[in-house]
Every structure is written in structure tokens, then in C-alpha cells.
Amino acid sequence: MPANKNALIRYKTIDNCLRNRFRQWTLDDLVDACCAALYDAEGITKGVSVRTVQGDIQMMRSDKLGYNAPIEVYDHKYYRYTDKDFSITNMPLSQNDYEMLREAVDMLRELEGFEQFSEMADVVSRLRDMVATSRSNSKPIVNFDSVPNLKGLRLLNPLYNYIANRQTLRIMYQSFNARRPTEYIFFPYLLKEFRNRWFVFGAKAENLVIYNLALDRIVSIEPSDEPFRDNPKFDPEHFFDNVIGVTKNIGSTPRTIKFWATPEQSHYVRTKPLHRSQRLVRENPDGSCVFAIDVVINFEMYSVFMSYGPGIKIIYPRNVREHMRKELKDTLELYDKMV
Questions:
Q1: pLDDT band at 129 (very low <50, low <70, confident <90, very high)
Q2: Which of 63, 72, 181, 326 could crosslink 174 through cysteines, CB 3.0-4.6 Å?
Q3: Are 93 and 135 in contact (CB under 8 A)?
């Protein structure tokens, strides 16, 4: 018996609640938790009825979905698992579940050869590994970089839906330097990830200027009645062609950045370019190399160069080289100070 997406969100929420044995959960508490989870995940504001959650508990107790959850009521009021180690997320895949997932992964693999889907390769690898390990209860073969419980991830799904539906938003946003949140009427256009941090790109209603808002700094988000508008100068398909990271203003001009790399770092830079525009300018007799990239100068570009430490030196332009020199000098002085 298949369960729809909202029901699965409720089951997972109830499961998370009942696994928390440091709190007593009434039926009303579970209803409130499900309402909050659906709002966070799907932007659903109509709530959940007591009867719906009661039905969810009965479904979880039954074997219709294979859960057989040991949910009990104690003191005629509170709910909990009789087995403190139980979780529906620990249930093995059924044969039907496995076959459906395998067919989905096989279908995605067929698309890997198309240029439009080239960036799906890592996603397909993740799915293949998850399906294989879930079925055989074996150790993972592939390990991907991730940050669990990253703040703001709960907003990804509702923001995706808002963008797809061209929904204007009212966002309360608090930057790291701000003492209190600021309200924006915002037209969302695009979601982007950089170094395990997510951003939503869009325009403010007052001037259509493009902004990027870090999801982990969004305090609240809700739909607005303001008519949705596009910024005709924002092209999400090519906006980041000349950018490292996420910081760029419309009309920003890319600069040619030349840099020297030690023989050791040259191997890494060659096999993993700093940017798609990277090219080899010169290879020296000692194995060191000079490379060039064409990018907009921003904070993320500097942070990438800084991550190579003494393995890379900016040659051109002069202002970029001098900025790097100052940053490294300040870093050295910081290490000389007592903390």
C-alpha cells in the first residue's frame, strides 16, 4: 500500500518524536510536530487533524507498510515506543521497494551519457551505493562529503517549490553582522550550493537588484501576495559561468588571473582546475606551472587561492596579488600573537 509524500513526512516526524524519550508526547504534541514538519518541508499551512495523526499511528503499528511499530499509550495520555531502540528508518527495504529503487537508478544511469545530465553522475553514484548497501546490509562503497544537520536545509524543498511556482516571498533575514532580522519581499529565481552551504538567488521587489541569501541565515519565510516579477538580466543558466562561488553582481566584468604553482601543486591544479576557464600558460623546467583563469574577483576566489597556502602565488593583476600579500601578512601576524 503506497504512502504519499505528506504521509511519509508525518510518519518520519512521529518516529523522531517517539524516539526522543526525554520528553512525554501527547497526541496534540504529535499533531503540532507534524504541522511544523509539513510547513518546513512543503510550505503547507493548513495543518494536520488529530484524526489524521491517529490514523498515521495505526498505520505505523500495522504491517501494511512493514513498520510494525511498537507504539504504546501509557498513563492514558502519552505515546512512546516500547522498544527504545526502534525506528522506522531502521527497517530493511522490501523486495518491492528494492526493485522500484533499482529501476529508478537504472533509468537515471541511461541519462548519464547526455550532456544535459552530466552533472548527475555523483547523484546516481550516491543512489546506487545507498540501494546496494540497504539491500545487502553491507558497508558503503562510496563516501561523499556532507555536513549533517546543516542549518537551513529544511528550507530547500519549500524554496524549490516556491521557485517552480513563481511565488513571491516575504523573508526575514539576519546576516552575521546584523543585530536584528530584515524583512525582504523577494522574487526567488535559483538555488545554488557552494561548499556544503546553500543560497537562494533572487531579486528584491523594490528595485529588482539580484541578491543571494544564505539559507542558514533565513529566520522565517512565507508566501506574499506581491505579483511575481522576473529580472530580465538574470540568466540562471549562464550567470555563474565566470564565477567561483556565489558572489557576483549583474554586469560584473571577469578578469584574467594568472598564478604560479609549485611542481607539487601543479599536479593537483591540472587534475582539478580552479575554474572551467583554467588554461596552462607555461610549464617551467622545474615542473612548476603558470595558469590563467577568467573570473569575477570576489571573496570566494580569494578563499580558494588562500586554501593552497605556499603552493600558489598570484602573478597578475597587481591589485589581486597585493590583496593576497596583505591577507597572508595578516595571517602570519595572527600566528605571532598570543591567544
A1: low
A2: 181
A3: yes
